[in-house]
Design brief:
By secondary structure, the chain is mainly alpha-helical. The chain contains 14 helices and three strands.
Length: about 290
């Protein structure tokens, strides 16, 4: 059954065939040769940027990474162990009150600047949410770092004067962003479209999408994968993809996520890169990891 609400020129997806394309470009080529910000430009504008366009795009996003101090104070008001997704949901929705011009949705210039603000500030808000949950002080953006490196710095910087992310980890994170840059017409995308149809500002609409992603049957699938890996680490054994001890031969909920199924081919193509990155951190994927995945 076709449940798409419209025809899309942004993403082509054939999960059975293992095909995922952004604006006609195969995901494998984009993940191998492009940066996340380059792919974001492609998704927004419909074509890959020239060198000059990419420089300008990167500059615009870089100079909008900071959030108003009142946003930080607002986030301080959450309970100490608040779920980061709940905090992100509230913080993104609150941005609509800081940028009242966002309500001018029929103005192309207004839409453009809100797009830049959302891409730029999302890592900052996400990192603040994580640090709050961990009981750690917030870290401001470091605009000397690239997009992924900046997020790593805001997540993990401690007492060092200058955080220097491992370039292998930063690149791995950048590729992860590329693989998840567009989610086609799933639950959160459909929620944003439905809310946006009321002509509300983009921040409120995106907050609705985050609320959908917060659900255990959507973004919660990714959380389940992380929990499964943590259980395997804590128990000193490979977590496995089947719950044999529970008498079930199906994969855990997180690994049955359609999105993860779609990304398998791209992930397989990056197995060699994954091995290189993990080797630098003292761990090699087991020989059968790819087959089990």
């Amino acid at each position: 059954m076709n449940t798409a609400s419209c025809r899309s020129a942004i993403t082509f997806l054939d999960g059975d065939a293992g095909v995922l394309e952004y604006r006609g470009y195969p995901i494998e080529a984009l993940a191998e040769h492009s940066s996340y910000l380059e792919v974001a430009y492609l998704l927004v504008h419909g074509e890959l940027p020239t060198s000059a366009q990419l420089d300008e795009w990167t500059h615009l996003i870089t100079i909008h990474t900071f959030v108003h101090e009142n946003v930080k104070e607002f986030m301080h008001g959450f309970r100490h162990n608040s779920h980061p997704m709940g905090m992100l949901l509230g913080a993104v929705g609150a941005l609509s009150t800081f940028y009242p011009d966002a309500s001018q949705i029929h103005d192309p210039e207004s839409r453009a600047i809100q797009t830049i603000r959302l891409i730029a500030k999302m890592p900052t808000l996400a990192a603040f949410s994580y640090r709050h949950n961990m009981g750690m002080p917030y870290v401001y953006p470091d605009n000397d770092l690239n997009y992924a490196g900046n997020l790593l710095g805001m997540l993990y910087k401690m007492t060092e004067l200058k955080y220097q992310p491992d370039p292998r980890i930063a690149r791995a994170l950048d590729v992860l962003f590329i693989l998840h840059a567009d989610h086609e017409q799933n639950c959160s995308t459909s929620s944003v479209r439905a809310i946006g149809s009321s002509l509300v500002d983009p921040y409120s609409a995106i907050a609705g999408g985050i609320a959908a992603l917060y659900g255990p049957s959507h973004g919660g699938a990714n959380e389940e994968v992380v929990r499964m890996l943590h259980r395997g680490r804590d128990q000193g054994e490979h977590p496995g993809l089947h719950r044999r001890r529970e008498g079930r031969q199906r994969a855990p909920d997180g690994l049955r996520s359609p999105r993860l199924q779609e990304l398998r081919p791209a992930g397989a193509n990056h197995q060699a890169g994954l091995r290189r990155r993990l080797r630098g951190h003292g761990r090699q994927p087991a020989a059968g990891d790819r087959d089990r995945a």
